[in-house]
Amino acid sequence: MDQRSAGGRVLVWAQWTLLVACLISSFGVLLLAALRAGDLGAVVDPGLERLGDPKDSLPGAPLVYGFVPGMFVAYFIYPVAFVTIFFGLGMLMHTWQVGDRETLRGLLKSTGAWVVLTAGALTPFGTQLHQWLLD
Questions:
Q1: Which of 4, 34, 90, 105 is deepest in the core (most CB within 10 A)?
Q2: Cα–Cα nearest to 110, from 20, 24, 29, 50
Q3: What is the per-residue pLDDT across 9-56, written as a single tens digit (0 to 9) for each?
Q4: Three-state secondary structure string covering 99-131
């Protein structure tokens, strides 16, 4: 009984896309700000006093449009993480029932990555980074 779970495959794709967008827009902006400020030590201690406004670190006009969608994911990391983990766990049960092992492995990896990202966002560094991005 090997069926394909189309919804599971779409969810895996969506989870990885949101994860990459969040990481590029949060850590990418952090690295750009640290390079612009000439203070690479600020990468482990982000804040307005060391890095300035994060919006000042965004690249020029054409490239900024690549960062903006990911910035929304980074701004709303907690609700996005909750939704991706919730749907991931629900879809895990469905793909297990239909017997789609390939999608099940993909969901385990992508949902697990979101659990790790959420745990990291709840650390003091993650909270400090989130606060800096929102300023």
A1: 34
A2: 20
A3: 999 999 999 999 999 888 888 888 898 888 888 889 888 888 888 877
A4: CCHHHHHHHHHHHHHHHHHHHHHCCHHHHHHHH
Instruction: Please list, in sequence order, all residues whose beta carbon lies within 8 angstroms of the beta carbon of residue 36, skipping any fewer than 6 positions away.
Output: 52, 56, 57
DSSP 24: I
CA atoms lying within 13 Å on the CB side of residue 93: 5
C-beta of residue 96 within 8 angstroms of C-beta of residue 107: no
Q: To which residue do tokens 């966002």 refer?
A: 121
Q: Amino acid identity, residue 134?
A: L
Q: CA distances (Å), 87 to each of 55, 83, 111, 114, 118, in order?
A: 32, 6, 9, 11, 15
- Residues 73 and 2: their CA atoms lie apart, in Å, by 35
List the one residue out of 27, 12, 2, 7 whose CA is nearest residue 106.
Answer: 12
Report pLDDT for 88.
94
Structure tokens at 107: 């969901």
